[in-house]
Every structure is written in C-alpha cells, then in structure tokens.
Design a protein that fits this description.
By secondary structure, the protein is an alpha/beta fold. The protein has helices at 2-30, 35-45, 49-67, 70-90, 101-125, 128-140, 142-152, 154-173, 189-200, 216-226, 245-253, 268-271, 274-281, 283-287, 301-304, 358-373, 378-387, 415-427, 447-461, 474-482, 496-504, and strands at residues 179-184, 206-208, 233-237, 257-260, 293-297, 312-317, 325-333, 336-343, 346-353, 396-399, 405-409, 433-437, 464-468, 490-493, 512-516. The protein has three domains: 2-152, no CATH class; 176-387, 3-Layer(aba) Sandwich (UDP-N-acetylmuramoyl-L-alanine:D-glutamate ligase); 396-516, Protein-Tyrosine Phosphatase, Chain A (Alpha-Beta Complex). Helix 3 (49-67) packs antiparallel against helix 4 (70-90) and helix 19 (447-461) packs across helix 20.
Length: 525
C-alpha cells in the first residue's frame, strides 16, 4: 500500500512540476527570454497566490512527515499538490504560452534540472518520502531553476538563431522583386498592418507577419515558413523593447517603404525617456533607401519634430490640415464610421468602415497612403475599407442579443488610445456609458499621472465605472475624485471575474460597455 501511495504521490509531483514550470516558462516567454526582464517582473510578482499556497502546502506536508507518519504525509502530498496543479491548469491566460522549439528546449532543460535536484537528494539520503517534499521545495524555487536553465542554454540558442537568420537572409536576397513594407510605432502598428494587407490584397499577392510577430525571430519564422515565390508584397511589423531591435529587423529585410504610426510614452519602463523611444522607432525610417517613401503620423510631437532627409515623406493626421494627408467629415454610429481623406486641401476620397475611433481611422489613412503610392485604385481601396474587420480586442464593437453594445479595447494600454476609446464611448449611440478597466501599465514614472488623468477622462465620459483591482486602480480613483464623481457610480472589483459577475446583474438593453486596458498575463491584480 505504501508503495502505491508513494508512486501516486510521485506522479502528482511530476504533474505539478509540469504545471509550475509551464507557468515559469510562460512568464519567461512574455519577458522575451531575458533574465533581466524576468527578474524585474519577479520583483513585484514574487509573492503571488500560487507561491503562497505552495509555501503553505510545504509547511503542512513537512510537519506531517515529521509528526504523523508516512501514510498520512503521502496522502496529504497527493491531495495538496494535486490541488496546486489543478489551480495552475485552470488559470486563464489572455496570451497563452506557446511551445515553440525554443520553449521546448528551455522547458525540457528546466524540467531536467528540477528532477536532478530531487534525484541528488535521494542518492545522498535514500529517503523516498522526503525526496518528494524536497522536489516540491525545489519547485518553490522554480524561478531560480528556469533562470539557470536560460543561462545554460544561451549558447545553443545563439547558434540556432544565427542559422535561422542566415537562412532567412538567403531567401530574401533571392527575392529582389519583393516589395517590403516596414511598420512600427508605440501603438497602432498591428492594426495598420492588417488594414494595409486588406487594401493591397485588392491588387497584389500579399504576405504579412502574422499576429504579433514583430521580433527578429518572428520575422525569420514568417520568411522561412510562409514566404512563397508568388508573393509580391511583404508587410513586416517591427516591435522594439530596446534600442537597435528595429534596426536588426531592417538589416534583415531591407524595407523599401516605412510607416511610423506613433511615438508615445508606452514602455517607458524599458526606454526611460521619450527621446529614446523616438530614436528607436526612427530606426525604420533611417534604414530606408534614398528616395523611399516614409509615411509619418504628424499627430505625435516626436514624429513631427524629427527631420527626415533624402526620403519621400508623407505626413498624415487625424485633423491637422497643415500636413500632406488628413481626415475630415468624420461621423460615428453603432454601425461604424464615415470619413473623407484630403491631400493638401483637395478631397481625394470618401470612405465607410465598420471600424470606429480616430486612431483606427488614422491607421486606415496610413494604409491608404501606401496603397495609393502602389497604385491600388481608390474604388478597390474603398471596397477593402468597407470590408475591414476590427483587429481583435482593439476597439471592436459588437451589439449583443440582450441589446448591450460592447466596445472591446482590451488590448490597448496607452494614454492616447484610452482617450480616443472614451471619445468613441461618449459619441456612440446608447443609454448608460459604462467602462471596465484596470488602468494602464508600463508607463514608468508617469504611470500614476496618466492613470489619474484617465480617471478624470472617465468622469467626463462615463455614467458608471468598474475598476478592476483595488490597489492598481488607486490613481484612477483619485482622478474620479478630482472630478467629484459620485461614489455610487463606482464599483471596485477584486478581479476580472468579480467585475463580470457585477456586470451580469447590472447592464440592460441600450447600455454601451467599454472594456479598456486589460492587463497582460505577467501582472497580477
């Protein structure tokens, strides 16, 4: 009987090891496999629910091993670690872990190191039950184990990445006929990529980097696995978490057209200053060949004030009539938007779209400029714009069967986008205007300032505010109080589930609900 219980406990510990190490892998993956970023995240997320429960479990099982005997202790290990594994398996993630080959290698090495830790103890002591407990204790320190594994495997990853890079470079060098368009910006790049892809597809066979593939390795994977001889245009989204990230992608793909959608105070935790953000985002424009087209959003100070020489520039704006291209005659409804495009005082075209929000229209304008440059007829562009679908979780408007209009902007987490989303909420047809938000993140020293400002904007636009997370939303609450927003119109939810439960008994037909600033998986409320 004891043997059966022991092997059952061993199996449970191994299952828990899989769940726990998968969690650590996920966090490492979301931090770009960089130990410095991972430990920076860990500084504010070391004491989280599953680690606290793990400590309690280890204390209980350790005491039982000492005081209650093998059978009782083994049963406790089975039950408690099975519960911990279950809680990790059912934990919902907005962006789940992706078991790429790199992730598999890191996970495998981390798992092996964890087993070695328990195995060494068993060899030294011969105590089977204590070995299970030591294995559980080692998993409490899984964040250390995965960081060690990440260091050990780094030379292998560099060699693999160099091989992939050179292979992708050869493929691109053989395609001198390919039109390559780079898109970057603090925000708006993914939407612009999708919109441009739809417009250009009216005339060309177009490939774009899928999803949020905006790193060098994401571009390499797209080139090696998806680029075909029949593709005429390749749209490359370029993200950056540090200087030279965009330059590295440009050195690989050599874009002939560049779109810069925004330079804003997003990711200030990484870049420290807006000037560093500007310099990094302009790596795309600086990489363009002489005479190439640079499409620049003049609504952002740190784009408009940066001189660009030896390039054909097209400055665009949502409303500034002093630049090359701008929007006018904008109107919103629950069905979408209507707007006109002007070029230096001349009306070029009028369009209808299912999309709402001035930054969506701004992103459409950027795509239109490139489509026009590549001689896609306006009639074809108009058809494409009419058929555009919202990028998931980015000002996505749906009218539910219960009569509630939902504006899903859950992937947005920047001051400009939040302000525009509230403008849409205020302008759209409906009865009560309701927001559900945990606020904005990754804004460095200005995070409190911008969340306080968000609270003031909510007070001006919303009839009811649901704030997700008591501590993280304190600046929003301060902004609401600055505007004397009534307490009875505020609900502070413990977590997203609590917020949704509150909504289910609160909303009614005619309400308009805005989901704004959802937190990424690496943050706990």
């Amino acid at each position: 009987m004891e043997n059966i219980l022991f092997f059952a406990a061993l199996a449970v510990i191994l299952v828990y090891a899989f769940a726990k190490l998968r969690f650590e892998l996920h966090m490492m993956q979301l931090n770009s496999y960089r130990n410095d970023r991972y430990f920076k995240w860990l500084k504010t997320n070391l004491v989280i629910t599953n680690r606290v429960l793990e400590v309690i479990t280890l204390v209980i099982t350790g005491l039982l091993i000492l005081l209650a005997g093998a059978t009782v202790a083994t049963i406790a290990i089975i039950l408690l670690f099975a519960l911990l594994a279950y809680l990790l398996f059912i934990k919902k993630q907005k962006k789940p872990v992706v078991f790429t080959k790199r992730a598999q290698r890191l996970f495998g090495l981390t798992f092996l190191l964890s087993i070695i830790a328990g195995g060494v103890y068993y060899i030294l002591t011969g105590k089977a039950l204590c070995t299970l407990w030591v294995g559980g204790f080692a998993l409490l320190l899984s964040f250390v184990i995965i960081a060690i594994a990440n260091v050990l495997i780094a030379p292998v990853e560099r060699a693999v990445n160099n091989w992939y890079y050179n292979d992708a470079k050869k493929i691109l060098e053989s395609r001198s006929d390919l039109i390559i368009i780079g898109i970057t910006g603090s925000y708006g790049k993914t939407s612009t990529k999708h919109f441009l892809h739809r417009m250009l597809s009216e005339k060309y066979n177009v490939l774009m980097t899928p999803g949020s593939y905006n790193t060098t390795m994401g571009v390499i994977k797209t080139v090696r696995e998806q680029l075909q001889a029949t593709h005429q245009v390749f749209i490359v989204e370029m993200g950056a978490k540090q200087p030279n990230d965009i330059k590295e992608i440009c050195d690989l793909v050599h874009p002939q057209i560049g779109i810069l959608t925004a330079v804003g105070e997003q990711h200030l935790e990484s870049f420290k200053t807006i000037q560093n953000v500007q310099k990094t985002k302009f790596e795309l424009i600086d990489a363009l060949p002489s005479g190439a087209l640079a499409v620049l959003n003049a609504d952002y100070e740190f784009i408009a004030n940066r001189p660009v020489s030896d390039r054909e520039t097209a400055l665009y704006s949502s409303d500034n009539e002093k630049v090359d291209y701008y929007l006018k005659d904008i109107s919103y409804s629950a069905r979408g938007s209507a707007f006109s495009v002007y070029h230096k005082g001349e009306k070029l075209a009028a369009f209808d779209t299912k999309l709402v929000g001035s930054y969506n229209l701004s992103n459409i304008l950027a795509g239109y400029i490139v489509a026009r440059h590549l001689e896609v007829p306006d009639s074809s562009v108009a058809f494409a714009i009419k058929k555009l679908e919202p990028v998931q979780h980015r000002l996505e408007v749906r009218v539910h069967s219960n009569g509630v209009t939902v504006i899903d902007d859950a992937f947005n987490s920047n001051p400009v986008g939040s302000k525009m989303a509230l403008e849409v909420l205020k302008a759209i047809e409906g009865q009560r205007k309701i927001i559900i938000t945990p606020g904005m993140i990754e804004l460095g020293e200005k995070q409190e300032y911008y969340n306080t400002l968000l609270g003031e904007q909510i007070a001006d636009s919303c009839d009811y505010a649901i704030l997700v997370g008591k501590n993280i939303t304190l600046p929003i609450m301060a902004g609401l109080k600055n505007k004397n927003y009534p307490d009875e119109k505020i609900y502070v939810a413990q977590n997203f589930k609590d917020a949704v439960n509150h909504l289910n008994g609160f909303t009614k037909a005619g309400d308009v609900l805005l989901y704004e600033n959802d937190l990424p998986d690496t943050y706990e409320l």
